[in-house]
Amino acid sequence: MTHLLSKPRLLGAILWLAALVVFGLVSAYTARQRLADELDVTGRTLHRLISQRVAQHDAHLTSLIALSSGSEPAPPGAARQVMESITRFYPRIVWIALIALDRTPPARPVVAVPDSGRIDLTPLLGDIGTQQRGHSFIYPADDKHYLLAKRAPGASPLAVVLLIDPARLLEPEEWPAFARLRLSLNGKTLVDHPADAAFGSGVTWLAGPHFEKVIDGDGQKLLLLLDRSLPLAALIPPRQFLGFALIAALVCVAFVVALRQRATIARSQQEARAAEARLAIKERETRLAHASRVNSMGELTSGIAHELTQPLTALLSRSQAALRLAQADKPNLALISDTLSLNVREAKRAGEMLRRMRDYASDKTPQRIPHDLNAIVTEAVALTSADLERRGVTLVLQLGEPAPHALVDVIETEQVLHNLIRNAADATGKDGVITIATETQGGDARIIVSDNGPGIAPELLPRLFTPFVTTKSDGMGLGLSLCATLVERIDGRIEADNPATGGARFIISLPLVDHQSEAAQ
Amino acid sequence: MTHRVYLIDDDEAVREALALLLGTYGIGVETFGDPAVFLAHVDENKPGCLVMDLRMPLVSGLQLHQKLAERGITWPTIMITGHGDVAACRRAFKAGIQDFLTKPVDGEVLVEALHQAFANLDTWLERRDARALLGTLTEREREVLDMVARGWASKEIAAALDLSARTIDAHRANIADKLGTSSVAEQVRLALMDTPSR
After folding, report:
1. 10 Å Cβ neighbour count for A367?
2. Three-state DSSP class for residue A149
3. Are A449 and A442 in contact (CB under 8 A)?
4. How far apart are CA A439 and CA A453, in angstroms?
């Protein structure tokens, strides 16, 4: 979760952006549609308006022709009066001229309102003269105006021409503020009225709505063009967009949170499963360890049976002997006493055997205290010295001074030493010499048990501390393995080698403790 | 009657205790901690019953038994062991062990087994003596004795061996002399003892 673009976050951001894009597109599309519809409505209205007004021009032409030609033409003064009133009422009709087509150029209007001739009609006269009578014809005049001409019916050479300012076809209030309006004639734009500045410039990536319709008022084929720009704000209303963005962001955040939660749940489930698997493995290991312990207990039982039944045999036999001695006519009390004290020793021996078995079988926690190793050696030696003496084995102690101290379980360490001494005595036999030394080396307190026996067989060295490895036909091969177990669980190690000086050597290395600080405690 | 008992066990305490116990029954015990020492020490002329541990370092009880048998010492043997599994027991009996006791062994059971062993040793000794006596006979005398054992009369024997009745009588006199008994029944008993046992 420390990564900024974690998978759920990235996904959330992408979703959010996608939602915004979709919203923008939909909004733009509907807005454009709405604006186009609006433009269409406006366009149709304007078209109708302009068409009506354009139609009036035709009516003016007809009435003026009727006034000026015919069987009883009105005097030019009267025509002028009518024309003036027309121009007054219709400001878009900039100029009205009654012309006679039979006059030779330069053509001059018969009547013109206003008088000042605005347009040189000469180039048009030929064309007007060829036009069908009774129909209006339209001609572009200059950049802003167009001409509407109509010939009088019958043989009259007269024609009426209107100069129309198309920009005035619409009243100022009728101009659409939001769209650009153009009126063009034969491709020539006569009116170009831009949209109000307030409606701004449109986006370039989307074509604005367009309205186009021909105004066909009796030959006045004007083209009405409406164009509407699409400002971004109109397409994608900022407030709506921001509101949507906010809501989408909230939804996305919720989504990300949900995703994360799901991931977390999945992970925790996975972890739970892994933990379960680990537990199962551990359980199996425990079972295996237990099974192997049970197996070795089975081995131990059969192996120890011999050893344990020895003292039991002796005990039973001596007890029965003592019983028989006591039941004799003249009990030999001294012999009975001797027998019983031997029994006491034997029972202790059996107890010791059981204790060793129990210690091996149970993983009891060692009671570790800082202790003087010299004292431990001395105690262990005291326990075995009688046996060694009987077997003719000499013990040499080389205790280091000051006495090295280590964090040990005293009884277990004595047991280890006891085992090593017994092994050494077995190896040397009569006239053997066993040397026990203590020393401090580096951070280690060491006890070294060496003998002058035949040494350890090289092939046996690598698996010397493996259980059930033994050279003794009656041994269980558990002694050294037990030693290793006991030493290792007080963070020590035990090593064996055959030094150059001969015999075998066992080195117990234990973590040294400062006995000064121990004394201070 | 009791005989000498040879106890071979690698455990000193067991040796001492069993010797003491058997002593209270009036049974003399000679103890050995090492089978090899016993093998070197054992005297064919001092027969006794053997009590030995099945499981000893270097030489097992059965191996010791085998080695003794090779030397003709087939004295009754009681095997004692810490864990009497069936296989070991079967092997022991197959090898001719008389009894198989598990440690800790009860004094009475052991003594009972020993008395049985003593009886067997008596038989063994008798057979040995008989064999020794019969060994002094000539082939012809042995032939005659076998026919006597079958219940033949001197005349029948003489006819079978194509000898005169007097010669047969002379042989029978020698046989009685050598076997130390003129009782035909006793002679027959001795002759039968020589037949291979088991």
Report:
1. 11
2. strand
3. no
4. 22
B194 touching chain A per CB within 8 A: no
Residues of B within 8 A of A342 (CB-CB) are 13, 16-17
Residues A432, A437, A441, A443: what is their CA dihedral angle, to the nearest 10 degrees?
A: 120
The partner residue sitting opposite B82, judged by closest CB among A306, A317, A320, is A306
Q: Which residues contact B6 (CB under 8 A, 6 or more apart)?
A: B29, B30, B32, B38, B42, B48, B49, B50, B51, B52
Tokens for A45? 């209205």
Q: How far is B170 from chain A (nearest CA, A)?
A: 58
| B57 contact A CB<8A | yes
Q: Which of B166, B130, B102, B190 is nearest to A316 (CA)?
A: B102
In 3-state terms chain B splits into helix, strand, coil percentages (rounded to 5) of 55, 10, 30
B56 at interface of A, judged by CB pairs closer than 8 A: yes
pLDDT tens per residue across span A171-228:
888 888 888 888 888 788 888 888 887 776 777 777 888 888 888 766 667 888 888 8
- By DSSP bridging, strand A505-513 and strand A444-451 are antiparallel
Asked if B52 and B8 touch (Cβ cutoff 8 Å), the reply is yes
* Reported ipTM: 0.73
N-to-C CA span, chain B: 24
Would the pTM of this model clear 0.80, i.e. be above it? no
Is B13 close to A312, i.e. CB distance below 8 A? no
Question: Would the CB atoms of B17 and A472 count as touching at under 8 Å?
Answer: no
Q: How many CA atoms lie within 13 A of A340 on its CB side?
A: 11
